[in-house]
Amino acid sequence: MCWPSTEAGPQAIPGLAARGYRRHAVHGEDRAWPETNCYTDLMVELAHAQGMEPLAMLPCTLGIGFEGDQWTFFKPPAAELFDLYGFDVQELQVWRPLADHVVEQVRAGNPVLVEVDAHWLPDTAGTAYRIEHSKTTIGVNRIDMDGERLGYFHNAGYFELSGEDFRATFKSDRKPGYLPPYVEYVKPRREFSPPRGAALVEASLANAPAHLARAPGENPFPRFRARFAEDQPKLVCKDFCFHEYSFANLRQFGACYELASAWLRWLGANGVDGVDGPAASLEAIAHGAKAFQFQLARGVARGRDLDLAPLDEMARHWDSAFSLLRARWR
Fold first, then answer.
1. Does the pLDDT at position 147 exceed 90?
2. For residue 39, with 0-12 CB atoms within 10 Å meaning exposed, 13-18 middle and 19 or more buried, which class applies?
3. Which domain holds residue 206?
């Protein structure tokens, strides 16, 4: 449900409405992974909605690896968000009803990042909405307590909910065992002019070496291949949930490397040399991960194991990309 931007309810970023909102290109339907993870997607759209270029926050995509039972959940660091966009991300202590905190912070101009149940988010229709319960993070931009309506960033865009969905998201009863959600708020940096143009490219580039230094010293794909071979029988037998496994693994590295490719191509379009080769290799990993996810879904449905050769191909692309990146920024 949408409501006009002139109606009641405080809003942190004025004038936003779900109807007519145009998401950033990295969330376009032509992407292999139009959604990545809830935090990074949210920050991308939060910057985009305020007229800033979110691609600059993506050097963090260089530092991921395989962590044993999942790939790194990649997030732009708070310090870089502060320097690039003036986003001062702070934890909020929930000692009153959650909605009271959200109203106060949004009224102060601070979007609020709240862990909620995707079961009540209309934008997840067809996956979680009214189907299953799962934790995710939204960025509240607008809240109307009287009208029971909410405007929020989530995944690939900006959305609105109302009525029963609103009441379920902001339950006011605190029964025994109640655990408040994790909440943050984003304060705009005072008297701050975000870098733009060449200055933004330079600031983004300056963050790359530190993230590249966090990347695994050895190719992570052989380790993932070995672990996947162990996990595959449990997926086929339904001991593991396919969707949860895929999110923690294939989607994490696939979406991450597609964003890394987008960042490198943005650098190239702004005059930075030596980025086309690694961008192409990382994009190949992203598309390979998407294809492998489809193959896995079919294999699980049919009770069949997969040929793991695509993971070997992804490993070769990783070697190519990171040898070039390390030569570029060593």
1. yes
2. middle
3. 198-329
